[in-house]
């Protein structure tokens, strides 16, 4: 298995909560990186995430919910939220 598979989980704390990634958790911990951009293929479509500082930008497939720092984020279009990184 390639190491790239583990990068989204390690850098952004991505973890499916339900089968098929209908609901997933996101716990950003970028460390020393100023910007992180990942695309995660899932059975429901691609999840695109960009984090720059405390700004988080997501593109979610239809019917997918992201849970981040107690916030539920959903929608087919890009969602931008200023979140404190814990």
From TrEMBL:
Limits of the Alpha-L-rhamnosidase C-terminal domain: 13-66
One Pfam family in the UniProt entry: Bac_rhamnosid_C
Protein name: Alpha-L-rhamnosidase C-terminal domain-containing protein
């Amino acid at each position: 298995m390639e190491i790239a598979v583990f990068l989204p989980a390690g850098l952004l704390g991505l973890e499916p909560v339900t089968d098929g990634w209908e609901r997933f958790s996101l716990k950003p911990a970028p460390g020393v990186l100023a910007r992180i951009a990942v695309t995660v293929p899932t059975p429901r479509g691609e999840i695109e995430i960009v984090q720059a500082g405390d700004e988080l930008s997501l593109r979610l497939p239809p019917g997918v919910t992201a849970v981040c720092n107690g916030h539920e984020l959903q929608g087919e279009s890009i969602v931008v939220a200023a979140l404190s990184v814990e």
